[in-house]
């Protein structure tokens, strides 16, 4: 064999491919689930997971906060028509009926009081009404009925009102509102009862002196009365009944502003 032939055989042996071939790569999609733990001698990032490794690595490197799904807000239910209408329809007849009952009982107890003049009995009857919001009407009806009597029951009605206040049944607000209610009717009442404005003024003066009525109410009443003669009679009688008391002059001094306001309404 020549040297050239030896060189040719060596180059041919070098060009011959190796006998051991490379391990063929396996496609992961043909592997059974859970067998992706070892691929080409490398450990998977998530053992036993069937998901692609690239997704797992991305979650591991840059974890994103998990945003919970927004809870849907239930739509507000409209009010049932019955809920709205119940407050207006059936209450009106019951309220009218109850008012009529209260008025009848009030007139009955007042008639009984002016007949027998028993304060404790009148107190019990007023308490049995169980209607504090109706107390101003009780005061108005008491004054109205007292001044309709012949002779007028001025002193008895004053004693009744003061007694009910001392027993914590009536308040000064009840008395003031009741007097205003009566004063608003005086233009009509005074036509049939000419002495009613004078007698009403006496009641106002004595209740104010007893400190169960704010003297400002007298000013408000004069503003409601349209007849000039009635206004003059009310204020003159109220001031006279106060001045006739030993402590009356001192009281009028403390109420000087309101007294002047009343006098300005007479001019």
From TrEMBL:
Where is the MI domain positioned along the sequence? 101-223
Q: Which InterPro entries match?
A: ARM-type_fold (IPR016024), Initiation_fac_eIF4g_MI (IPR003891)
Q: Which keywords does this Swiss-Prot/TrEMBL entry list? A: Translation regulation
Q: Where is this region: Disordered?
A: 1-37
> Which GO terms are recorded in the biological process aspect for this UniProt protein?
regulation of translation
- Xref: SMART domains: MA3
Tell me where the transmembrane regions lie: none
The record's GO molecular-function terms, alphabetically, read: mRNA binding; translation initiation factor activity
Annotated Gene Ontology cellular components are: eukaryotic translation initiation factor 4F complex
What name goes with this protein? Answer: MI domain-containing protein
């Amino acid at each position: 064999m020549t040297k050239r032939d030896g060189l040719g055989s060596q180059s041919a042996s070098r060009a011959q491919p190796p006998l051991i071939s490379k391990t063929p790569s396996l496609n992961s999609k043909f592997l059974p689930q859970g067998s992706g733990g070892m691929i080409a001698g490398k450990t998977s990032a998530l053992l036993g997971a069937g998901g692609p490794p690239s997704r797992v690595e991305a979650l591991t490197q840059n974890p994103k906060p998990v945003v919970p799904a927004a809870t849907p807000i239930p739509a507000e239910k409209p009010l049932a028509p019955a809920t709205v209408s119940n407050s207006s329809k059936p209450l009106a007849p019951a309220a009218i009926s109850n008012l009529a009952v209260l008025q009848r009982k009030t007139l009955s107890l007042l008639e009984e009081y002016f007949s027998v003049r028993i304060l404790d009995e009148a107190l019990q009857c007023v308490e049995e009404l169980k209607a504090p919001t109706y107390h101003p009407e009780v005061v108005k009806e008491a004054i109205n009925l007292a001044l309709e009597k012949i002779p007028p029951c001025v002193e008895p009605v004053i004693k009744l009102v003061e007694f009910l206040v001392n027993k914590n049944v009536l308040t000064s607000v009840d008395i003031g509102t009741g007097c205003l209610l009566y004063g608003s009717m005086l233009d009509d009442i005074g036509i049939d009862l000419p002495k009613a404005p004078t007698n009403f003024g006496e009641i106002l003066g004595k209740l104010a002196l007893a400190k169960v009525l704010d003297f400002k109410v007298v000013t408000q009443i004069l503003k409601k009365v349209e007849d000039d003669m009635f206004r003059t009679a009310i204020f003159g009688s109220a001031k006279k009944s106060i001045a006739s008391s030993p402590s009356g002059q001192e009281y009028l001094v403390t109420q000087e502003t309101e007294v002047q306001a009343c006098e300005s309404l007479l001019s």
